[in-house]
Amino acid sequence: MPELPEVETIRKTLIQFIEGKTISDVQIHWPRIIKHPEDTERFKLQLIGQSFQHISRKGKFLIFHLDDYDLVSHLRMEGKYSVHPKEEEKDKHTHILFTFTDGLELRYNDVRKFGTMHLFERGRYLKVKPISQLAPDPFEQEFNLSYFTEKLLKTRRAIKNVLLDQTVIAGLGNIYVDETLFKAKVHPLKASCDLSKEEIKNIKKYAKETLAEAITQGGTTIRSYVASDGEMGMFQQKLYVYGQEDMPCVHCEDTVVKIRLSNRGTHYCPSCQREGA
DNA sequence: ACTAATGTTAGTCT
DNA sequence: TAGACTAACATTAG
Questions:
Q1: Which nucleotides in chain C lie less than 7 Å from some protein C-beta?
Q2: A24: domain range?
Q3: Residues β-bridged to residue A259
Q4: Distance CA A258, CA A277 (A)
């Protein structure tokens, strides 16, 4: 379930394999993944002959920069990229294949087919959906305290839901939100508008810190995530609450609990993260 | 063999 | 308009 640190790890591994490579063919076995252009034949024709210049990331989106186009890719739950010789047998969940002139192939694999791809003429992706409404991530300059405070204070939704909202803060998913709130000692159900200045500061600080630490560990592997070179992440060993239900809290003698918040598994320590505190 | 749970986002409904 | 809910899917644990 790639969140920002996993996407960043994929970006770094993948660039080594595909930088400079030229696309000679594109195969599309599940067209619904391609959201733009509407005509998938056009998607294919636009890509043939293009070379990969570099890969960037915005929140959880990967952006492949080609000569004349940018390919915006979101992995959602289970999307994966890997590189293979084109004659190598492909697995049944490989849906999109980009063949290179040198005989290698970039493959997009997605068990649940939730991932998306948008191809736009160079530079346009910043001005249109899905990137246009994306908030800055905690590593970007615009993500400063006054911006964040204003966003958090203007809604009474539960803070956990607000932190999952990619138009407020980009990059956090279920795992890193639970970890961030634990470190900031804030209850996941607390109304966003009721947060103190101190709590907002802490959430901001720990969101960045948690993501940064996870990047150095190559991300978190819970069920299926691996980077594009097949390497697992290591951050799961540093999780304090996610997946730790019924385990002792690392800071006190209480037990980590798991509840359901808007249909998402939500983990916290009832003593360290007191409701209404 | 069935059911629930898994997590991300866009779109729909209230 | 804020905010809650659901569909898009496949797999696996219970």
A1: 2-6, 8-11
A2: 4-133
A3: A266
A4: 19
Residue A95's nearest CA partner among A77, A119, A79 is A79
Active-site annotation holds for A154:
no
Evaluate if the CB of A261 falls below 7 Å from strand C: no
Q: How confident is the model at residue A234 (pLDDT cuts 50, 70, 90)?
A: confident
Domain boundary among A133, A161, A185: A133
Element (H, E) at A264: strand A264-268
Q: For A44-95, what is each residue's pLDDT tens digit? A: 999 999 999 999 999 999 999 999 999 999 998 889 999 999 999 888 889 9
For residue A112, the model assigns a pLDDT of: 84
Domain of A204: which CATH number? 1.10.8.50
Q: Is A2 a catalytic residue?
A: yes
Whether residues A18 and A92 share a domain: the answer is yes
The gap between the terminal CA atoms of chain A, to the nearest Å, is: 31
Q: Give percent of chain A above pLDDT 90.
A: 74
Q: Global pTM? A: 0.94
CB under 7 Å from any atom of strand B: which residues? A 1, 3, 59-60, 74, 76-77, 112, 114, 129-130, 164, 166, 173-175, 222, 258, 260, 264-265
- Would you say A62 and A55 are in contact if contact means Cβ atoms under 8 Å apart? yes
Last residue of a domain, one of A88, A112, A133: A133
Residue A210 class from Cβ within 10 Å (0-12 exposed, 13-18 middle, 19+ buried)? buried
